[in-house]
Structures are given as C-alpha cells and as structure tokens.
Amino acid sequence: MDILEDLESLQFEYGIQKEDRSWLYLQGRSRGLMIKSCAHATFFCKLLCNLRESFHEEQTSSRLSTGVVAGVPNDDELKVGIIGGGHLGKQLARVLLQLVPIPAENLRISTRRPEALGEFQNLGIQCFYHNPHLVDWANVIFLCCLPSQLPNICLEIQTRLEKDCIVYSFIAAIPIARLKLLLNHTNILRPQYQCVEEWVNIWGANKDITAALQDPVILQATCPFSSAGGITLNFKWLEGVLYTVLNVCTARDVPHLRALQLLNQLFLSVHSAACGKDGASCPTLELRDLVSQVYSKNLPQRRPFPWFDLTAVQLKETPFSQHLSASPALQDHLTYQYCNSFGISLTKEQQPAVSTGSPSQ
C-alpha cells in the first residue's frame, strides 16, 4: 500500500492559486493527447508487425513446398526508430515495448542527450545521437522532436530516406505538406487531433500511459472514430494507415488481389455477434473502394497496386474517403479491429461515441 498516494499536499493541484485553477483542464487535455497519440502509434505498429508476419509465413510455406526444410530466418521483423528522447519519445518507447510488443533490439532512439536514457539502455535499446544512422536502419521513423529542431533534422535525413521508409510525425505545428517539402518524401503519416470545448476528463491522472491503455474506458475513447474525452482524430489518419499497408505490399511486388486479401485480414477480420456465423453481411474492401473505377478496370491481375503519395491521401478526397464516410458498418468493423488489437472485445452497445466532424483535413 502506498501511504502517500492520496496525500493532498503531494497532489499537482495543491500549490496552484484558486484563481488559476480554471486552467487545470489543460493538464487533462495534454494527457489525453499523449494517450491517444501513443495508442494510435501502437495500433499502427501492430498492423505492420502482423503484415510482416504474414509475409514471413508465406515465405516459409513457399520454401517447404519446394522441399527446403531448414528454418527460414525472420528478416521481416519491424524495425522502429524514434527521433527525440523527450517526454513523448520516452512514453512512446515504453508503450511500443510493452503493448506491440517491439523487441528491444528492434527499437532505437536518436536524441541529443542519449546519456539521459539509461532506463532504455538497461533494457537493451540502442540510444545515440546520429539521425542519419537511425534512418538507414529503421523501417518506421517516429518524429518526436520540437518544431524548432525539425528543419535541421530534415536536412540530415532527407537524402538517407528510402522510398518505403515510413515517417510518422507527432509535430502538430508542421503541416504535412510542409513536411513533404522538408523531407522530399511522400511516405509520411501525420495524425491530426482536435479538442472540443465541452468535454469530460476521462484520462485519469495517476496511471502511466501503458496502464491507461489497458483500461477499457480509456482505450475505447482512443478509438479512431470516438469523440469521448474531448479529443477527436481526423479520419484521414486511418485512411493514410490503410494506404501505407498497400505501399508496403507494393514495395514487395505483391499482386493487388493478394494485397486486398491481406488488407481485409488486417482491418476487417474481427466481427461482432450481430454479424452472424458466416459474416456474409459484413463489409469487405474491394478494388473500387481504393482506386478509381477507370484504373481498377485496367489493372492486370498480377500487377501490384500503384505507389500512393500518403501526403496526398491525407489532404485530398479518395475513393476510400467516400466509401468510409458512407458506411457506418465499415466504421464499426474498423473499431472492432482496433479494440481487439488491444485485447478488448466490443458489443454494438459498447461502441464509443462517433465524432461527427468532417473526415476531410
């Protein structure tokens, strides 16, 4: 038992003057943004890990069918780099380690003060200050630095970014179009959050982020379509995540029909009791939901999907934008998949409140 846990004089609010207490809501809002940011990054990495595991299983099966019985080394494990070792970078590293989980040897941090990250070095994570070296190694780069630091970082890494390296930016002050110019790169994801005026603080105060994401109430509030907790996520982020998966498949020259199968497995394989045994009434993604009708009619069966500019996907209307906004059933099933990835099953009645904001950016 922690005898100091509820001691009033140790609480954050204790030293704040009465006239300033109206600003305390900002603390809850900041915590909510941190929890949502880490949750969505975790979901994204879980998807990529599952996709890479599917590639590895297919490679193993192919070798066995040709009579090769030796074990196939798994070179498809996701390698994640974090640029920035401040509060967000450290919280993100903890969550990825524990909830994806990313093995310590597959997570590296580049920061100006690596000596301050002894906690992570003791776990076997490489911490150093060499951004180009990190980019050379990683499949996914999370930008957790200050806006003032970003131009110099972009100068360091822009010539080292491979086309299929995914850059995931938490820097809210830098629009995605600006990031594209700074990095000379299109494989970029940038979640956009918006805070509403009237809200109820459900984010808690004492739990660390990893523990908070194991609380069903908090986790449901992080669902991509949820407005609970006063923070909404632009729908275009989820669209960007989906097209990122297609780009990963294209980089491996996966035929588009197989890529569609993988997409449905990753995003729409979890159902509710209302779906029925065979799931025949459940939504599935088809070629026309992702590319224009003209393009879909002329795409040869063995051809991969085209390479998508993720910055354009997040800024413009796409076939999937229209399909997603017009299909509540699709939104429901994406929510089922999201919660299931964290070990929580939802009934229809437990669906979190859906944001009514426009999916456009």
From TrEMBL:
Pfam families in alphabetical order: F420_oxidored
GO biological process assignments: L-proline biosynthetic process
Domain of life of the native organism: Eukaryota
Residue ranges of domain Pyrroline-5-carboxylate reductase catalytic N-terminal in the record: 79-168
InterPro entries linked to this entry: NAD(P)-bd_dom_sf, P5C_Rdtase_cat_N
Span of the signal peptide: none
Ranges annotated as spanning the membrane: none
GO terms of molecular function: pyrroline-5-carboxylate reductase activity
Keywords of the record: Oxidoreductase
Family: Belongs to the pyrroline-5-carboxylate reductase family.
Chain's role: Probable oxidoreductase.
Protein name per the record: NADP-dependent oxidoreductase domain-containing protein 1
Provenance organism: Enhydra lutris kenyoni
Gene: LOC111148690
